[in-house]
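User: Here's a structure from my thesis project, written as structure tokens. My advisor, Dr. K., wants to see whether a designed sequence matches the one we expressed. Can you design one independently, without my sequence as a hint?
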């Protein structure tokens, strides 16, 4: 097997500027769906595979709302395949995740099935969760203690604070990625998530540039069937080496102080980009 390694040494300040100016190369124009791309038939899950990501959270106030200092956060995340774990009679693939500050650690347990890549259980959520924010965030009737917790819920997961110290089992298991993937492929992600039914749909093929390189990716949209959450724009960019990029925007989010008093209304955003990886092919 060939071991592909890609490393980029870039000052963090430069990476932050990359995020702030949203520098990326995505071909969304006519004909982008005809770009040659390898058929996606399996998420790379060999032991030792790893991916490193930079992740930026921002909150931008609407022009006609009260203005205070914007809330933002920046994480460096390491995800790796750390082995196989038996869960009852099921042999699962363990993915471990931590942020470089050493304050956060999480594990997720997946299984390759003929029709897709399923998550069966997890602990600690799926994104690095830093210390509690100074603000609260409200979306509809739901209130969150940080933008990261808001993004977890938008992704259809139980709040990370509920699973931080215990294992949460998905019943039934959730299909994260469908096999095979092609244009217009759509599948049910959650029937009854925290914010209702969610499906995923392949809406295009894009050339995506991140600090780790240039990738041909399937652009996968999260579809929210509850119209209350129609203001969420969530896209994953998936290539043969795994997740390359994620963009997530949630409008009409109410920011509140620690006592629950409204400060203003705006848009919460998250950009996650691949910076380094090592994948066995």
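Assistant: Designed independently from the structure alone:
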């Amino acid at each position: 097997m060939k071991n592909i390694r890609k490393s980029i040494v870039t000052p963090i300040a430069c990476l932050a500027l990359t995020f702030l100016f949203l520098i990326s190369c995505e071909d969304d124009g006519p004909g982008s769906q005809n770009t040659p791309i390898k058929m996606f038939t399996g998420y790379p899950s060999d032991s030792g595979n790893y991916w490193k990501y930079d992740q930026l959270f921002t909150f931008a106030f609407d022009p006609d709302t009260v203005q205070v200092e914007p809330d933002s956060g920046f994480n460096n995340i390491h995800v790796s395949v750390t082995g196989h774990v038996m869960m009852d009679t099921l042999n699962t693939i363990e993915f471990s995740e931590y942020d470089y500050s050493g304050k956060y650690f999480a594990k997720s347990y997946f299984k390759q099935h003929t029709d897709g890549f399923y998550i069966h259980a997890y602990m600690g959520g799926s994104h690095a969760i830093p210390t509690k924010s100074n603000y609260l965030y409200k979306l509809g009737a739901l209130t969150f203690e940080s933008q990261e917790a808001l993004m977890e819920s938008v992704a259809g997961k139980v709040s990370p604070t509920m699973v931080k110290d215990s294992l949460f089992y998905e019943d039934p298991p959730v299909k994260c990625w469908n096999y095979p993937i092609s244009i217009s492929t759509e599948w049910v992600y959650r029937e009854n998530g925290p914010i209702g039914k969610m499906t995923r749909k392949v809406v295009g093929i894009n050339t995506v540039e991140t600090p780790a390189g240039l990738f041909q990716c399937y652009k996968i949209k999260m579809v929210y069937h509850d119209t209350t959450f129609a203001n969420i724009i969530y896209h994953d960019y998936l290539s043969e080496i795994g997740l390359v990029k994620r963009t997530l925007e949630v409008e009409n989010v109410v920011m509140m102080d620690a006592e629950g008093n409204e400060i203003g209304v705006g848009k919460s955003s998250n950009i996650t980009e691949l910076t380094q990886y090592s994948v066995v092919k």
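When you compare it with your expressed construct, this may help: The chain has three helices and 15 strands.
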